[in-house]
Amino acid sequence: MSALLAGLASDQPVPAGGSASAAVVAIAAALLEKVAKLSASSWAGAEGARKQAADLRRSAEELVDADAHAYLTFVAAMRSTKGTSDDAREKATGPARAATVDVPHAIVRAAAETVELAADLAVRGNPKLRSDATTAAHLAAAAAHAGAVTMAANLPPGSNDARLAEAQRLALGANARVRSLPA
């Protein structure tokens, strides 16, 4: 955690917003693992929820580094095409740019799934841990929104990308789901 925070506070281009969003999803999923573990005696579905939370945490942890790698790859591709035509540059950098959208898209999807799991645990899990499940839902919903913002920033101006529309829909749904949770 200290290394990530130091990296975020540094003057280096990465890690940045996408990595931070993925880290927030990992934190929310880790909190849900705890809630699920401590709900095992009161809910038969707790073990399945724990496994899902663990999978989400591991995926989100991988996305922290994947986001940084995608951005650095895109920057390198852009630098390597200096002096070329716009068409040649876009053709050469297209795959790298796609990764800078695909990774935050995966972050948004993981965040939305984490919100749904948190909602399930808030209702079915150990009532003493409802606030922890709800906190995880709030964190993940914020990460979903942040991931969609990152996607939008990484798309070419005027882009009408279906992935962004889906991410924005998922982020709105995550926020609506959080608002429906018991306090």
Number of domains: 1
Question: Which shape, going by the Cα principal axes?
Answer: elongated
- The termini sit apart by 29 Å
Radius of gyration: 18 Å
Overall pLDDT confidence: 96
Q: Would you identify the CATH architecture?
A: Up-down Bundle
User: So how many helices?
Assistant: 6
Written as H for each helix and E for each strand, in order along the chain, the element string is HHHHHH
Beta content comes to under 5%
Helix fraction bin = over 70%
Q: What is the CATH superfamily? A: Formiminotetrahydrofolate cyclodeaminase monomer, up-and-down helical bundle
Q: How many strand elements?
A: 0
Q: Find the CATH topology.
A: Four Helix Bundle (Hemerythrin (Met), subunit A)
**Protein structure class:** mainly alpha
**Briefly, what CATH class?**
Mainly Alpha
Poorly predicted ranges = none
Biggest sheet details = none
